[in-house]
Every structure is written in C-alpha cells, then in structure tokens.
What does this fold into?
Amino acid sequence: MNNHPNLNDLIAFVSMDRLNAETVALSAAVNAHLADCAACRARVRDLQTVYDALCREMNTSAAAVALARTAHETETHPQRTETETK
It folds into this structure.
C-alpha cells in the first residue's frame, strides 16, 4: 500500500480536538489506512507520544502547532545515523 496519508493529515488526526464533517472524514480515511499499514501505525504512535507530552506542558492548540513544526522539521531535515556521520 503506497497511498499513505500525508504528514499534515497524520498530525491533524493525532491532534483532533473537535468533530466536524471534515475531521470525521479524515479520521475515517486515516483509520482505514492504519488498519492495513504498520508503518503508518508506528508513525501515528510516535506523533501521539510527542503530542501527549506537549499537551502536558502547554494548551492543546499550542501543542498541535509545536507538533506540526517538529514533525515538518524532522521530515525536511532527518537526523543522520551514526554510520552516515562517519
């Protein structure tokens, strides 16, 4: 399965704080994909862990913004592995 949800959709999925037609549709689509995709389930678990930690330190709106910034920064500037730095 190569039709993975994009990072913005996964962040929205993790940080949903209200339901409306758009978020219900997004949640259904992401949940359907997660049922068959272990890689995306792992990514959502990681995002959820970070989001939960941020929520303990700040309000949920700020946590969602911080999660998006962190995730996008990580995606555009991935950390090098130890073997890549040698």
